[in-house]
Amino acid sequence: MQSARFFTVLGDLAEVVLFQIGPYYLFGLQIGPIKLVYGGFLWTLAVVFRMVINLALMFSFIYSTSLNDLVKSLSSLKVPYQVIYILIVALKFVPEIFREFTLTSLAQALRGWKLKSRNPVKVFRMAAPIVNPFTRRIITYVDRLTLTVQIRGFSGSNMKYPWKIQFSALDWTVSILFIAGTICALYLLFFFGIGAI
Known about the structure:
Blueprint: E1 17-21, E2 24-26, E3 29-31, E4 34-37, H1 38-64, H2 67-76, H3 81-110, H4 120-126, H5 128-151, H6 169-192
Antiparallel strand pairs: 1-4, 2-3
C-alpha cells in the first residue's frame, strides 16, 4: 500500500484513516498497526478499475475482431508469420480449453461428482474424473493442431499473403479522434493534475 505522502492531489484528506487493525502483541513482539488511509483506498480502487477496464477492452477486442482480420492486420504490419500463428492459436486454443474444462466439470457434476475436501491428497485423487477426460481431449487438440501445421506447410520459409489492407475514411476518423483524445488527456494530466491519483 502506498504511503499517504504520495497523494498530493487529495491533500490532507489522503491521510484520513478509514480503519486500523492492531497493534497486537504476541510473545513480546508488536504486530501492526495496519492502517487503511483514504488515499490508499482510492489508489487501490483505481488499480482495480484499471484492471477491469483493460480486461473489458481485451474481451471486446477478442470477441469483436475476426481472426481473418487480425491475421491480415498483423501481416500488413510485417509481423513474422510465426508470431501471427502463435497469437491466433492462443486466441482460439485457450478459450477452447476453458470451454472443454467447463463441459467436463458439468458432466461429472451431473453424475454426482464433487470436489470438497481440505486434504490435498484426497483432492488429487478426487480430481481424476476431471483430469483423465480433460487430458485426453487436450491431447486430441494438440494432435489436430500438429496435423494442421504440417498440412499448411508452416515450416516453409517463404510466406506471402494475397491481400493488402487500406484504411477507410471511418478508420482514419476513429484513429485521429483516439490520438487527439489521448493527447488531450495527457495534457490535462501533466499540466492540471486532472485524473491523477
